[in-house]
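User: We ran a pulldown and think these components assemble together. Before we commit to crystallization trials, I'd like a predicted model of the whole complex to look at. Sequences follow.
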Amino acid sequence: MRDTSGKVVITGMGAVSPFGAGVEALWNGLAAGTGCMHTVPELEALPMVKTKVAATVPEMDFSYIPRQARRSMSRMAFYAYAAAQEALRQAGYTTPPDGLGFFMGSTLNSISVWLKITAQCQANHLELIKTSDFLQIMNHSPLATVAQALKINGPSVGAAGACATGLMNLGLGYMAVKSGWLKQALCGGTEEYHPMFSACFDVMQATSYNFNDAPSQACRPFDKDRTGLVASEGCGLLFLEREEDARARGAVILGEIIGFASNTDTENIAYPSAATLQACMQAALDDAHLQPRQVDVLNAHATGTLIGDIAESRAAYQVFGPHIRTNSLKGALGHSMGASGALETIACVQMLQKQFLLPTQNLHEPDERCGALDYITSGTAGKADIILKNSFAIGGNNCSLLLRRVP
Amino acid sequence: MITKEEIIQKTNEALKKEFELTDAQLVPTARLKDDLGLDSLDAVDMIVVLEQQFGVVLRQGYDMRSMVTLNDLYNFIEHLAQEHKA
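Assistant: Here's a predicted model for the assembly, 493 residues in total across the polymer chains.
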């Protein structure tokens, strides 16, 4: 019989974000609140597409990755390789421990590689497709290629749930370690931006378009002047293990995961219902045996869309009432889609460690339809022990994760 | 008809770019696997790359196991070129 009584802790974190490589760069960028959003020439050339802004990872040299690993990797796998190395290093490993589980996915695979292959297909030159190109567009390509490159030899199981992917994989890793199925797991999500993302969200009337001339102000979660999201990219990975194992090997414990829940909104594939989001948050609280009043901060999914922000804030109000301190990191980071849940969880762990609550960038005047939550609009030093992190996806996939500070 | 020197030059150019090799490594006696570090996946990608470079089908007569050195590869392409001409 497996022992399920142990606590699951975080001992390593790795990030690649529009603020650069590393967890420190992520925190510094989020704290500064500006600097990673920019106009996109491909979008500027499309009059029908209203949004012109995105947040992309700065140009990086990944030639340090051995060629025979790199040849099968798309850009999102490069991000994952760097993030995995950072998380492993912080967890105290130069090489992955034997049996390490790997839970990582993405919304789509590399669009740029797909387009290259599609061009060959359309030209009736299927014979020109290289094996290494094919390996870059497999559904689990980043998971497989990073596992191969770093020799991660436990189960590699990638869940794909669009914008909830990162948190979904963290939840799966949490359950795998909590249940005793695995001793350790590396979990999160990765994504690479292509203008297609912005164009598709634009058609759905879910993009930011009224601050194209001031990109750093473009994403405005809960703000009355918001019109939608700003797409971004990156990778976040967290190393999970049992608390007793971490302490036994002298690892530094960064935080604890104490609950997780996921449900599916079957009312509509694209428009979230407050009732289902509320049920998801409540289920996470139940999983952690917590009362709503015990949660200090809600780190919202809040992408800055008209409908999504209203639904989430109303759901949060129903669960927590008006006094829950609430922030969204997408005002500064943009929506890194499959990576967002993991990147933002990393920032949540840092908020708990530093006892500093990051602001919702560009939230100046809350939309009155977004309820009366206690929105954090400027960086604030403050006591916080428990954060609830949300990620919700097109497709109706909802996830909520509870984090606890470990003093 | 393409000369042997042209085959060597075009082959080396493609291999340098695809597999990040240097001129110094690309000597005729270099063993594809042991000296240039090309594994089985590289070997199949190499044929696709060389077919694009030369504009001819190489894969049908290609036996990976018989291709030990770079010179074996040059000779294989030269042989195909002669056949093509005939």
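The mean pLDDT of chain A is 96. That may be worth checking against your pulldown data before setting up trials.

User: Thanks, that helps.
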